Amino acid sequence: MMEINRFIKLLSVLMFVLSLCMKLNSVSAAEARCIERERQAFLKFKHDLVDANGLLSSWGSEEDKRECCKWKGILCSNGTGHVISLDLDAFPWSGHLLLKGKLSPSLLDLQHLNYLGLSGNDFGGSEIPRFIGSSKNLRHLKLNYSNFSGEVPCELGNLTNLNTLDLGYNNLRIKNFDCLSHLSSLSYLNLSRNDFGGSEIPRFIGSFRNLRHLMLTDSNFSGEVPCELGNLTNLNTLDLGYNNLRIKNFDCLSHLSSLSYLDLSRNDFGGSEIPRVIGSFRNLRHLMLRGSNFGGEVPCELGNLTNLNTLDLGYNNLRIKNFDCLSHLSSLSHRDLSSVNLINQTSWLHHITRFPFLKKLSLIGCQLPNPVLSFDIFTNSSLSKLSILELNSNYLTPYPHCVGCLTLVQVLQALTSPLIN
Ligand SMILES: *[C@@H]1O[C@H](CO)[C@@H](O)[C@H](O)[C@H]1NC(C)=O
Ligand SMILES: *[C@@H]1O[C@H](CO)[C@@H](O)[C@H](O)[C@H]1NC(C)=O
Ligand SMILES: *[C@@H]1O[C@H](CO)[C@@H](O)[C@H](O)[C@H]1NC(C)=O
Ligand SMILES: *[C@@H]1O[C@H](CO)[C@@H](O)[C@H](O)[C@H]1NC(C)=O
Ligand SMILES: *[C@@H]1O[C@H](CO)[C@@H](O)[C@H](O)[C@H]1NC(C)=O
Ligand SMILES: *[C@@H]1O[C@H](CO)[C@@H](O)[C@H](O)[C@H]1NC(C)=O
Ligand SMILES: *[C@@H]1O[C@H](CO)[C@@H](O)[C@H](O)[C@H]1NC(C)=O
Ligand SMILES: *[C@@H]1O[C@H](CO)[C@@H](O)[C@H](O)[C@H]1NC(C)=O
Ligand SMILES: *[C@@H]1O[C@H](CO)[C@@H](O)[C@H](O)[C@H]1NC(C)=O
Ligand SMILES: *[C@@H]1O[C@H](CO)[C@@H](O)[C@H](O)[C@H]1NC(C)=O
């Protein structure tokens, strides 16, 4: 009896273990959640691409590759099993991971796709296919640096859920900007490094209230920066550098107080002064106003920007009379004042010791006089992080015996370079 009892107990334990195993088994079967229609869509998608580096080797029709949710670059929803993200963003400068070929419309079978990232691949100068505009659940579309050219299809304007749109670094045009005017959910828009043929920045961008990052660098925009951009009070990054833009009335941008990155370099501000209101953008960490034909005195208000990390005022037509009002910029790590007129600032060397985090300081062509302090200040000073000090083309006497300068990478060459005049 005892034996039988024991046997039954053992048996029930065994059954329990077995049923556990079966449960586990059925769980892993449920994990194989790739939806066949989507798998077929990916196989067609791969078929139209040239994958010389075997980036997509995990994608295949073989039995052991059934689980497309495990294929490289693909992410499925845990709940529904639908593919929600296709991330084939590549880094071309590494020399690998470069897909060529064309985009298959089979992408439209991925009806739940919310992220499509194809940046850094090579679509051979073709146009962005119109059908992408029908992928209506897309929230993130990254086609930067992908060798697309020609007209941006109006159909992209149908993607009203888009949060991220990155078309940077291609060879794109937009004839009719208005067809993008409904992309009002955007929080990141990067159109940098294309050629928009001298057109104005479209005013409707000012109605994209969620916009946090707006990058229109080096894209052949011209004319007046629209006042409407001043409505973008959540804006964190505004990069308008390397265009042909003007700002007549900077006051209408005075509410951009969330900005942490502002680049207006290489435009033409017609010799006007740096707007004082920039000094009220308390979150600014990077301010680049290089080579934009600003003139006059650098406003003391910039000294209120105590979080500033990078300040580039180089190659304008500026003067600094009162260094003291800039002395609170103690977080600065990169500072370029090249060509700012500092002719009467014999204590300039003393002033820069107030910026303990400086890594790079450029004072090229500033008409700098010989400093009252000795360059030996570098031996003792708090400027322990400074590694690049550019002083070419000033009124400095060559200073060969500067001991502390030895810790600076580029200063010696600068100090011994020919004087101007
Ligand atoms: C799915 O679940 C796994 C494990 O819990 C988790 O790491 C992953 O982030 C989830 N994926 C999504 C898209 O929610
Ligand atoms: C594309 O843009 C993203 C930012 O949206 C960036 O992180 C990435 O490096 C860019 N890729 C290429 C290839 O430029
Ligand atoms: C873009 O594609 C064209 C046509 O295939 C090719 O000639 C060109 O080199 C490509 N550009 C880049 C930057 O890869
Ligand atoms: C998408 O946009 C195009 C051009 O702007 C338009 O002709 C078409 O009707 C739109 N399609 C949908 C589904 O809204
Ligand atoms: C915007 O795009 C350009 C060109 O691809 C890139 O160099 C830049 O880093 C991007 N800016 C941001 C803030 O992502
Ligand atoms: C900007 O676009 C205009 C008009 O198409 C063209 O004439 C000019 O060469 C372009 N400028 C640059 C820098 O590409
Ligand atoms: C946006 O800015 C413009 C010009 O500054 C202004 O006329 C307009 O009323 C603003 N729009 C909203 C919705 O605040
Ligand atoms: C900003 O700086 C100016 C000039 O240095 C000063 O008069 C002004 O009070 C400062 N503003 C604030 C809000 O601190
Ligand atoms: C430098 O000082 C001289 C003499 O005080 C003055 O005439 C000149 O305007 C000053 N230059 C600058 C750029 O401040
Ligand atoms: C460096 O510091 C030492 C000791 O504090 C001092 O004697 C010397 O004069 C200082 N040298 C310079 C160039 O400031």
Automatic annotation (TrEMBL):
Any GO CC annotation of this UniProt entry: plasma membrane
Signal peptide feature range: 1-29
Keyword field contains Signal: yes
SMART domains: LRR_SD22, LRR_TYP
InterPro entries for this protein: Leu-rich_rpt, Leu-rich_rpt_typical-subtyp, LRR_dom_sf, LRR_N_plant-typ, RLP23-like
Cellular localization per UniProt: Cell membrane
Primary location recorded for the protein, binned into one broad class: membrane
Membrane topology, from the record: Single-pass type I membrane protein
Transport among keywords: no
Leucine-rich repeat-containing N-terminal plant-type domain segment(s): 37-77
Keywords, comma-separated and alphabetical: Cell membrane, Glycoprotein, Leucine-rich repeat, Membrane, Repeat, Signal, Transmembrane, Transmembrane helix
Lineage top rank: taxon: Eukaryota
Gene3D superfamilies reported in the protein's UniProt record: Ribonuclease Inhibitor
GO biological process: defense response; response to other organism
PANTHER family on file: LRR RECEPTOR-LIKE KINASE, LRR RECEPTOR-LIKE SERINE_THREONINE-PROTEIN KINASE FLS2
Family: Belongs to the RLP family.
Protein name (record): Leucine-rich repeat-containing N-terminal plant-type domain-containing protein
Organism: Fraxinus pennsylvanica
Lineage: Eukaryota, Viridiplantae, Streptophyta, Embryophyta, Tracheophyta
